[in-house]
Please model this.
Amino acid sequence: MLGYRIIDRYVLTEVVKPLSVALGIGLMVLLSERLVRLLDITLGKKNSFSVVFELLGYLVPHYLGIALPAALFLGLLFGFNKLSKNSEIDAMLAAGISLHRMARPVIHFSILLALVSVFIFGWLQPYTRYAYRALVFNIRNVEVFYLAEEGVFMQVGTRTFILDTLERKTNRFQRIFLFDYRGKGGAQTVTAKRGYLVPQKEDPRPLLVLEEGLRMRLKSWPEPGSDAPPPTFTSGRFERVEVPIGRKSRSVFRPRGEDEREMTLTELIRSYDTPRKKATVTEIHTELNKRIVSILTILILPFLALPFAIGQRRRQRAYRFAVAFTILVGYYELVQNTSAMAKTGAAPIWLALWAPFLALTAFTAWRYWHACFTLGRDHFDAIYDRLSDAGQAVRRLVFRLFGGAEREAGT
Model:
């Protein structure tokens, strides 16, 4: 038993190393893609870089749910393929250790990751999704004046403004021009020598304070080509005026959970037959079943990856990996699209979610049984051979087209 425990640790180490690398690279790629869009939202704001990292932190659980299954699958493929390529699997088989026995530590590891994914899908993602949305709203609708740049016209809702000089550390600015267009309700123009923003404890909107200014207001907006008399206006000077900046929106500042994706697993179960006001029964049912399917899929990944990782012909390695990853990506894309159909009622949940999962499970069981408990030839070898022959034909064609041209140029 001591030898088996050493082998278990060795197999697990060979899998965890590529898994960690794939997980790190996957998260960096996914987060960097979102980073560009977040910079468009936050660039120029007070503490903009800290806000960006806070938003990225809220996105990590969402992308972790995407990257974790893919990283586990790649770790299994590369780990067991390395054992196979180095003939270590052959040595273990000769020592009486079956392939199924070698897979035991990674099966236990997948169970651990499935338990972790219960926490990620069930609680972490709903809370961080809501926190991300709330912070984005605050950035766009509450702290709008932090977007300002000196000498640049800025458009925020119905207001257009420009500042002469700006001190971000103190939230103060000099010489402001502000135009507020209110449609048929007229318009308002405000100029002031200086102003500053004051955060409020009981109101999420900052308070805009303007000093020594002039205000002019049109009571209505003139209609082009109309015979109506020009609208009347009022104007006056002021020494100091205070007004909250931004707006409160009930559609955004709402309790967490009105969107079914913001609900925890326990909340989905409690609301299974009595959904909240902005979620339908179908949406609740689909969301709960989708999360259960996503968690259970992690448990079958070791059984799916192992037959593709072990091969007798080394030149087929790339094609084995391509076929395996195509199956996994196709499955997740299918579940994603069919779940969207199920939420609208266009497809029943059992057909949209459970049928693909059961089909993948049956295919995985057949492949794993054939690889571990039979001595027959891999049924996918013919596919790998065709892909290999097609790849060689493409390489020869490219060599003739570009390699031959280079030789002629050299002569």
Q: What stands out?
A: The chain has two domains: 2-139+255-398, 147-205+207-244.
